[in-house]
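Bumping with the actual sequence this time:
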Amino acid sequence: MTDDQPSFDDTGFDVDDWARLKPFVGVLATLDDVQRRVAIFALGDTENGRPIDMELPQPVIWWTDDGEEAAIVVQAEAHDTEDGETMEVLGLVTPDGGGAVALLEDVDLVDDTDPVWRRLVTEAIGDEEGDED
């Protein structure tokens, strides 16, 4: 793998080093890209797949069933379903280095100065490092 290819190394990020995450842009991801850890997801059962033109990497607040989480978007694709609906799908990296998939409608785009995003990143890292009292 060369330095200009994105890679998700499970080390995560903090509020100061998130921009080092390399995005997967310009083409649709394949299963091989996911297996090589240069993309978060690959969709094969949709139609008219295309990259979404957005600035990546991009900090977001992701709204999950458990509440809000901080993440970085590193992949963005739009895909049409058989019903003619368009899904805008994002590949996310979480502060602990995990990968996740979310719909664009389930995130708020923020910048790295957003106090809620910064708090969520700090809390996630603290939980992962096993803070002791």
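The tokens above came from a reply further down the thread. Strands lie at 47-51, 58-64, 67-80, 86-93, 99-103, 107-109.
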